Amino acid sequence: MYGWIWRHLPGNAWVRGFISLVLALAVVYALFQYVFPWAEPLLPFGDVTVDGAGTGGAGAGR
Amino acid sequence: MAARTEHEERTDERVAPVRRTSRHPVATAVSIFGELLITGGLVLGLFVVYSLWWTNVLADREADKQGNTVRDRWAGGPGALDTGDGIGFLHVPAMKNGEVLVKKGTDTETLNNGIAGYYTDPVKSALPSDAQGNFSLAAHRDGHGAKFHNIDKVKKGDAVVFETKDTWYVYKVYAELPETSKFNVDAIAPVPKESGVKKAGRYITLTTCTPVYTSKYRYIVWGELVRTEKVDRDRTKPVELR
């Protein structure tokens, strides 16, 4: 998978390394900006109230 | 067979480093599977970084901004209770976390801004200025500002001070409940009997999740009002905060 990407990047090793770095950063950005904020409420780590309606577990949101 | 594959690979690389054609399909599948596992591990690791560090960065930034807005509104000196952008600041010296802005509501979006919220549901919280009732608050234990992270450091007898525009409300912690169910709504009742009190009074209840990094249970700390102090021109802090 990563080998395949590497072989399909243009340029010499330095250019490829640079593009790889940019790609990796783009992926991290997308994760932090979109994927994790979306996933977080679905996981039972941040429920702090006593109302029985945790967002995790039974999936009882509000 | 493994050795043969390796040998072929090496030959491939020497002859034509850009194209590998003669790899066994099983080897390819195993290799892709391995890479997916590594990727999954990295993503989970990043999620931990996100939860425990990045959400704090964002929340602290937002809490500072919102706190400053409230301080600006108060700049004219003491005045009547102002609930516009938040009702005041919670100071718990034992938690060593400075001041926590308190706003209405305990929904996720509110609490994710690195502030504490007072309950509107399932039991409506009283306000500190009410003649009696329970001022019940919730905030995050980890991530999103983690404002109640050190709730386990709060012991019986510690001071909890709530600052509004015109009054310092000084509470004293009299009971704690290190672990309870999230269904234990009685913990924030107007008279929280579970804490050992029977009569109506002016109580404060702090709730957050426990153990740290999860939210399997809830951690409760109860306090009772001992006195109030008028805010003076210089906002001189009550003796508990000095």
From TrEMBL, chain A:
Transmembrane segments: 12-36
Record keywords: Membrane, Transmembrane, Transmembrane helix
Highest taxon of the lineage: Bacteria
Name the UniProt record assigns to this protein: Uncharacterized protein
Species of the source: Streptomyces atroolivaceus
From TrEMBL, chain B:
Keyword set, alphabetical order: Hydrolase, Membrane, Transmembrane, Transmembrane helix
Lineage: superkingdom: Bacteria
SUPFAM superfamilies the UniProt entry points to: Sortase (SSF63817)
InterPro entries: Sortase (IPR005754), Sortase_Class_E (IPR053465), Sortase_dom-sf (IPR023365), Sortase_E (IPR042003)
Keyword Membrane found: yes
Bias type Basic and acidic residues, positions: 1-16
Region (Disordered), start-end ranges: 1-20
A UniProt-annotated Pfam family: Sortase
Keyword Hydrolase part of the UniProt annotation: yes
Membrane-crossing segments per the record: 29-54
Protein name, entry field: Class E sortase
